[in-house]
Amino acid sequence: MDQILTEIQHVSEFQPLPTDDQIQAWVQAALHDRVPNNTELCVRIVDKPEIQTLNQQYRHKDKPTNVLSFPVDLPEEVKVPLLGDIVICAPVVFEEAQTQNKTYEHHFAHMIVHGCLHLLGYDHVTDEQADLMEPLEISILATIDIPNPYNRERS
Fold it and tell me: In total, how many domains does the chain have?
């Protein structure tokens, strides 16, 4: 079966981490029917120092965050099936899961889906953008038996 080609880089010392098979399944759920088969992306699992450096460099926020997405921006004439990179901070995802009373696995899956949708151009900066992105996340997560992560007011 054709699928999304996902390179998974484990550079986090945090344990436990989801398996590569879990990450691949979450990526597949997020991108199924949204990109051509054999599209490629990279998921990099990092610790707080690396995500904080990237967050400072690209978003001018000097603090760790849960996930960052870096869509590929190739010239139109370059026909390469690259989608981009997702960088996810395992310790932050773990801490958020505890704080939000979610399972670590469910929250990690949500962050993978969230990052994939960012690669596709979805955002949540405004309420209007969030009103498009969040129901899609909920729908995708439901396909893999993960409950609605937004059972709370937006902050």
Answer: 1
Q: State whether the Cα torsion 139-140-146-151 is positive or negative.
A: negative
Whole-structure pTM over 0.85, yes or no? Answer: yes
Report CA Rg, the chain. Answer: 15
pLDDT per residue as tens digits for the range 35-58 = 988 899 999 999 999 999 999 999
Alpha carbons 124 and 76: distance in angstroms, whole number: 26
Q: Is the pLDDT of residue 138 over 80?
A: yes
Tell me whether residue 108 is exposed, middle or buried, using C-beta atoms within 10 angstroms of its C-beta: 0 to 12, 13 to 18, 19 or more.
buried
Q: Is residue 150 part of a domain?
A: no
User: Within a domain: residue 37?
Assistant: yes
Q: Is the pLDDT assigned to residue 69 strictly greater than 80?
A: yes
Residue 96: which domain range? 5-143
- Look at residue 138 and tell me if it is in a domain: yes
Positive or negative, the CA dihedral 26, 18, 71, 155 is positive
